[in-house]
Specification:
single chain, 382 residues, alpha/beta, seven-stranded mixed beta sheet, two-stranded antiparallel ribbon, 12 helices, globular
């Protein structure tokens, strides 16, 4: 008995005691035999202390913190693992469904269309003192003219920056084409290309406002009578006013005189510009002369119908309504350098020599630009 080793109560060999303590406290430290079967991130067993050294860790002490393994990569998670969505999943969820997006766009358009129709029916829309309906012009009339402008005549616009961003201005252009389509194309050119989104208010002849249906549409589109009073009221409001001084003389001239400017009247547009100190912007249009090549004029029919001329073209009236289809020529509209008028004294408008000189200056600038554009043009149709 003297040689027997005395084991105090409560103490056991450390290898067995460590295993019992680990199982009793829920520690992740396995036994040496199970450590080899565990993965590389398993905790190794605590090494045995030498005999004679008393274990000082109390029974209620917390277990040692397990060694932290390296964080797993986000994409290393199993496909069926539960937990937060990965970055790819979040991106996929955040991406809007194209079908839903298209449906929302159509819903918005339908809502706007019904709201527009409701305002039309109830009369809840605004027109100015000239009858100009901005909403109808922007959403309906321009949409009807734009395919002719962009796809049929393929209008190219130059020098749009010469039209001021604010304040009044007078745009003076040549006039041609048998029918006044050049005025409409110029209106779309300003509406769709000006960076400030300005609108062109055209001065039209008396005949336009004598025709049924055309009268109402012209008023709605912002056109008004070609007189000094209406032009001055528009310029006072800071509008862009368009005028074609050639009138019917330019619109109905024979095909053999194409791109030769006719007389600019008495220069009343210069007097209006001087009176209000607004710049004059010359405008040259190439391509309109060839849409209806006018090879003749039936004056008898014109007098019976009350028209200034009755055109005869290679297709009209021989082909009936089909002959009224314009030829698909290629157009170019160029706005030239503005001619300032604010530097003249108030009595300048009463000086006939100054009026003549400014009128001739505008006419010559338009004519020179027409010749230059014709030289640059490759073909009538391309």
């Amino acid at each position: 008995m003297a040689d027997a080793k005395v084991i105090p109560f409560g103490e056991e060999p450390r290898s067995r005691r460590g295993g019992k303590r680990a199982r009793g406290r829920g520690s992740s430290s396995p036994s040496p035999s199970s450590s080899a079967a565990s993965g590389p991130h398993s905790l190794s067993s605590v090494p045995d202390q030498p005999d004679g050294v008393e274990d000082t860790m109390p029974n209620d002490a917390p277990p040692p913190e397990p060694a932290q393994s390296e964080p797993a990569e986000p994409h290393a998670a199993a496909p069926d693992a539960e937990g937060p969505a990965t970055a790819e999943g979040a991106t996929a969820d955040a991406t809007e469904d194209p079908a839903e997006s298209g449906g929302g766009d159509w819903d918005r358009r339908l809502a706007e269309g019904f709201a527009f129709l409701r305002r039309r029916v109830t009369g809840d829309y605004e027109v100015d003192e000239f009858g100009y309906d901005k909403e109808l012009t922007d959403q309906v009339l321009m949409s009807l003219i734009r395919p002719l402008y962009a796809n049929y005549f393929r209008v190219e616009v130059k020098g749009i920056e010469n039209i001021p961003s604010d304040g009044g201005a007078l745009v003076v252009s040549n006039h041609s084409g048998t029918l006044p389509l050049d005025g409409l194309m110029m209106q779309v050119a300003v509406h769709d290309n000006h960076p400030a989104g300005r609108h062109l208010r055209l001065l039209a002849a008396d005949l336009v406002f004598m025709l049924p249906v055309v009268n109402e549409l012209a008023r709605k589109a912002g056109h008004t009578l070609a007189c000094a009073e209406d032009a001055e009221r528009l310029l006072q409001r800071g509008e862009i006013v368009g005028v074609m001084p050639e009138g019917f003389k330019g619109l109905g001239k024979p095909f053999g005189e194409r791109y030769k400017l006719q007389r600019f009247g008495r220069g009343g547009f210069v007097s209006t510009a001087l009176r209000h100190g607004v710049p004059i912007v010359p405008c040259s249009i190439v391509g309109a002369e060839e849409i209806y090549p006018m090879i003749g004029n039936s004056k008898t029919l014109a007098r019976l119908l009350g028209f200034p001329y009755f055109p005869i073209t290679p297709t009209f009236p021989w082909l009936g309504p089909l002959g009224a289809l314009p030829l698909p020529t290629k157009w170019t509209i160029q706005f030239g350098e503005p001619i300032p008028t604010d530097g003249y004294p108030p009595e300048a408008e009463e000086d006939p020599m100054l009026m003549f000189n400014l009128t001739d200056q505008v006419r010559e600038q338009i004519q020179h630009t027409l010749y230059k554009l014709l030289v640059q043009r490759r073909s009538v149709f391309f």
